[in-house]
Amino acid sequence: MRHGAPSFNKMSNTWIYLPHLKEHEDSLTPNVLLGKGRTGVSLVLGIPTVKREKQSYLISTLSSLFYELSPEELTDIVVIVFVAEVDSAYVQGVAESIMTKFPDEVNSGILEVVTASPHFYPSFSQLKETLGDSKERVKWRTKQNLDYSFLMLYAQQKGSYYVQLEDDIAAKEGYLQAMKTFAKQNPEDWLILEFSQLGFIGKMFRTSDLPMLVEFILMFYKDKPIDWLLDHILWVKVCHPEKGEVHCSRKKDVLRRRYKPSLFQHIGIHSSLKGKIQKLKDRDFGKQTLFKAHTNPPAELKTSLTAYESHTLERAYLGQDFFWGMSPVIGDFVQISFHQPQPVKGYLFRSGNIETNGDKLYNTTVEVLPSDVSLNTTLFLDAKREFLSFVALGAFVNGVAEGTIDPLMEKISAIRLVIHSDSDVWALLSEVTGIWRVGCRTPVKPVKNLKKVG
Questions:
Q1: Residue 240 and residue 248: Cα distance in Å, rounded?
Q2: Which of 62, 81, 290, 325 has the fewest Cβ atoms nearer than 10 Å?
Q3: Is the separation of the CB atoms in 207 and 162 below 8 Å?
């Protein structure tokens, strides 16, 4: 245990429902692999993750959650990844992968990775087959109930509201503020606020209600799946056995309130249950904004990257789509050559989008070609002043390249992006624009695939 991880030993009833915990003193002590012990936030997002047979969606899920959050929003959340496995090598591998992909979020305390003691889980060998489920499925849903319970207990002292998520979802842009606003608009008595209609995705609770919820779940964790148990809690709290289903549904709707459109979409295909294909989609989620369109001046476009399907550079430049280039390597480039030199004041290139936020540009510079090659060399420091030489002005940081262009350059003939190292992800450009003194919109010349720079 690190960073002052809370122990759950004070919740004495846990020992009643899980008597095997008495055999080991540390069975309810969480092991914090990554984290700074952040507390006092508004929202705590909980994500249990397990080893999947086919494909992991965890990194994509985290990228989607962090996409375009403001500094103010980042100071008011904690995202907890609970690695619900006892294989220490696998657990450590997940922690290392998260640290590599999200160092800023981990070091600032926004993102935590925790796991349970190997003694937390009971033996699943004596489970009864119920509800017509196979023994493997009963074991899967039983362990899932324990995973949710552990995560809720860990999260209860960290903030005001707890939101249950899964490790294979995509978030809608602006989801965080939407959840906060909806919670403020519903100050009266509710138990669950729903931000997705699927399963246990996007369910918000007051952290003050978590101990009661966990105790109910642990009472029946071997009997039914989590979403059924939640419905039973509502029934117990408000339904009258003599007043019928209509009255009961109306009463439950007071405690369980639905936000539309949904803020989270299920993206996984391969379930954490071995062999199960999960194609469920939330029809209330709607379409994501995957690129931002701008009016750019006419230009000839060149790239050494191969576009994936119809996601071409030309369509991205015209504001019709995003550009998705496959497998960037050192020397790959994207070049925009204007038909007429342009008085450009600045530039903005954004890589990744809310669904594919991991496909960013890394170790990539922004270079411009001034139309006036006779400018004083001191303006460009040690840049070569040969004809058609490009000048490096900036680079991508956290997937975004944004900057100004010295007015002494006057007009620019071309802008290009140059990749300086091989990448293990594709490159997706969701926003391409400059700050123009003069601009117009006409068709661009078709993209040419050329040899790499260098």
A1: 7
A2: 290
A3: yes
Percentage of the chain exceeding pLDDT 70: 84
- Listed residue (266, 361, 321) closest to 60, CA to CA: 266
Please check the confidence at residue 95 and state whether its pLDDT lies above 90. yes
Rounded Cα distance, 39 and 1, in Å: 17
| 248 has a pLDDT exceeding 60 | yes
CA–CA separation, 184 and 268 (whole Å): 31
Q: Bridge partners of 266?
A: 169
Contact 153, 29 (CB under 8 A): no
Residue of 303, 373, 371 whose CA lies nearest to 332: 303
Single-letter amino acid, residue 126: Q
| Most trustworthy range by pLDDT among 41-50, 380-389, 395-404 | 41-50
Beta bridge partners of 338: 299
| Strand-strand pairing, 256-258 and 192-194 | parallel
Helix (H, G, I), strand (E, B) or coil at 183: helix
182: tokens are 């909806």
pLDDT at 16: 86
Mean pLDDT, rounded, of the chain: 85
| Residue 361 near residue 396 (C-beta atoms within 8 A) | yes
Strands (E) located in 209-304: 256-258, 264-266, 299-303
Which of 2, 279, 21, 271 is closest to 146 using CA atoms? 21
Do 333 and 375 meet the contact criterion of CB atoms below 8 Å apart?
Answer: no
- Range 123-149 burial, b when 16+ CB lie within 10 A, else e: eeeebeeeeeeeeebbbbbbbbbbbbb
Checking if the pLDDT of 94 tops 90, the result is: yes
- Summarised one tens digit per residue, pLDDT across range 28-83 is 889 999 999 999 999 999 999 998 776 678 988 998 899 878 999 999 999 999 99
Q: What does the pLDDT read at residue 380? A: 43
Q: What angle do CA 280, 285, 286 make, to 5 degrees?
A: 115
Q: Cα(321)–Cα(293) distance, rounded to whole angstroms?
A: 8
Farthest CA pair distance, the chain: 90
